[in-house]
Amino acid sequence: MKKVVIDGNSLTLEEVIKVARKNYKVELSEEAKKRVIKSRSIVDNIVENDEVVYGITTGFGKFSDVTISGEDCKTLQRNLIISHACGYGNNLATDEVRTAMLLRANALSKGYSGIRLETLNTLIEMLNKGVHPVIPEKGSLGASGDLAPLSHMVLPMLGEGEAEYEGKVLSGKEAMKKAGIETIELVAKEGLALINGTQIMTAVGALALYDGINLVKISDIASALTLEALRGIRDAFDPRTHNIRPHKGQINTAKNILNLVEGSSLITNQGEIRVQDAYTLRCIPQIHGASKDALNYVKERVEIEINSVTDNPIVTEEGQVISGGNFHGQPMALSFDFLGIAMAELANVSERRLERLINYQLNDLPAFLVKHGGLNSGFMITQYAAAALVSENKILAHPASVDSIPSSANQEDHVSMGTIAARKGRDIIRNCERVLATEILAACQAIDFRKDFNLGKGTKVAYETVREAVNFIEEDVVMYKELEKVQQLIVEGKVVNNVEEVVKVIY
């Protein structure tokens, strides 16, 4: 059985993808089980002794000064979930929901949240049996965590809300029954433990990051194809230039380009055709490299966050209950804003290379890469569409993290907007996929106008992968269908995977 064992400390981005998109089963480690049981015993003692402790025997937010009796604790936890489930908008995708469930389970398995083991096991059983709560994507301020969307995640556990099961959206109660999972009644601290965390923003952002890593590799492949199509100059990628400005992403990008075009007869030397290329060709290492360095930073932040305790209060190993602010999404908000900006730049430069491919005033190719121009428009409007996506990305790249609106009667007076940052980053990446697909298709079209050439070791594989799906465009066709084919090759990883069989593309 393909499975991922969670212990709260060692989950990786690659394992997240296995669970989210490849349906690996999830199993709790034995050590994690012991920690969860110990943490719960501390909470039980607090309730039995009628101690006044925030989140256990008090209300929440501004109601933290309202003491709740032991017999009302169950009602308090249920009320917390149903009152906080007020999300709005399109529903999160299934892989985003699965990731959120996994990350919440992993955080709870660290043993600082006071949840019962059977409650945690219910969440894991839902994940393993494919009961996916319906979660609207909007409604989180990113502090106190992702309260509204995570409440929607919990509803089916109580027999409420809705969930997707076997391809159908059912009531939460019916989905749990069909999957053979018992619904539960939450007890003291459990509702807050389940919803007070950053798992929605981190889930959306982590998946976007993974897709972004694939796209930075695609961007190098696309630019290498364009470089060949335009008879670009190899000298700008000489390692001697990059070693004296040793940013890792820049050095790796220059290496990638040289490796991808190795053996190409289209690539030229300085002065052979022209002395310099335009910035969008000559500065590929500097531009792409900066985005790669940004993604490496974000990946480091994400892998810290997916193995962190992000709820409040925490129950320490010594039996103390500490009220703090680990639910605050600021570390992720800044990171996902950075992710969006980095990916928007890859689309920006790709669209400018697309313009150089189709604009006959900037190259020696047929106008808009088509025979019989005038009768045929060729790639003319592909640049319009790409430009629209790039412009939209510029709007989306405005940082969400610079905004804050006080909540809970000003008790929670600074929030992160991290979930908005994550969703914007995801949307930028979707747009970036299409822009890069457009550049790749145009580059392959331009290459076909060249005569008697050899492509590079890596670009030849990329070109052949595209040509297996899309033919040379002799006369106008329904263009969006051709672009969708190339975008699908990118999304499925076929371009990168095929190229990496002969050339390792590093980021």
From TrEMBL:
Contains an active site 4-methylidene-imidazol-5-one (MIO), which is formed autocatalytically by cyclization and dehydration of residues Ala-Ser-Gly. It holds the Pfam family Lyase_aromatic. GO terms for molecular function: histidine ammonia-lyase activity. HAMAP family: His_ammonia_lyase. CDD domains: PAL-HAL. SUPFAM superfamilies: L-aspartase-like. Gene3D superfamilies: Fumarase/aspartase (Central domain) (1.20.200.10), Fumarase/aspartase (N-terminal domain) (1.10.275.10). The modification 2,3-didehydroalanine (Ser) is found at S144. Belongs to the PAL/histidase family. There is a cross-link at A143-G145 (5-imidazolinone (Ala-Gly)). This is Histidine ammonia-lyase.
